[in-house]
Amino acid sequence: MQNKYESVLENIPSEGFIKLTSEQPASLSGADKAALIRKGNAFFNDKEYEKARRIFVTTGYTDGLIRIGDWYLEHNQPLEAIKMYWMAPAPDKVESWAGKAAGALSKWLGE
Questions:
Q1: Mean pLDDT, rounded, of the chain
Q2: Counting Cβ atoms within 10 Å, is residue 74 exposed (0-12), middle (13-18) or buried (19+)?
Q3: Which of 3, 24, 76, 83 is deepest in the core (most CB within 10 A)?
Q4: Over 70: is that where the pLDDT of 47 sits?
Q5: Residue-number span of the structural domain to which 69 is assigned
């Protein structure tokens, strides 16, 4: 007979609790995704952002896509940032940026 903790562990998804986008590549197993995400995080920490971005896009790793988007914003590449936020999906980040862009356009048109 199983104890109550063993039955809970059986319900954990094979890919763990990593937040992923809704569109997942069908050919990657949960273990492959987890290994790639770890590698992507290592690239990100080593400032190899393009390699990290490619892995995060491939795996659909939401938090990684958001961090890459934030990096793009910090480096004055807002369109690339929006792409990452859109893929994540991170609607709060997209809406925030869209509001700022609309404000800038209104100011320009007013001048």
A1: 80
A2: exposed
A3: 83
A4: yes
A5: 27-110
pLDDT in tens, 22-46: 555 557 788 888 999 999 999 999 9
Q: Which two tokens stand for residue 59?
A: 């795996």
Domains in the chain: how many in total?
1
Q: How far apart are CA 48 and CA 42, in angstroms?
A: 9
Of 32, 99, 94, 91, give the one whose Cα is nearest residue 59.
Answer: 32
- CB burial of 12-24 (b: ≥16 within 10 Å; e: otherwise) equals eeebeebebbeee
Residue 89 pLDDT greater than 70, yes or no: yes
Residue 78 has pLDDT above 80, yes or no: yes
Q: Is 51 exposed, middle or buried (0-12, 13-18, 19+ CB in 10 A)?
A: middle
What whole-number distance in Å separates Cα of residue 78 and Cα of residue 71?
10
- Is residue 91 included in any domain, yes or no? yes
* Token pair in block for residue 13: 């998804």
Question: In this structure, is residue 7 part of a structural domain?
Answer: no
Give the contacts of 70 (CB within 8 A, at least 6 positions apart): 81
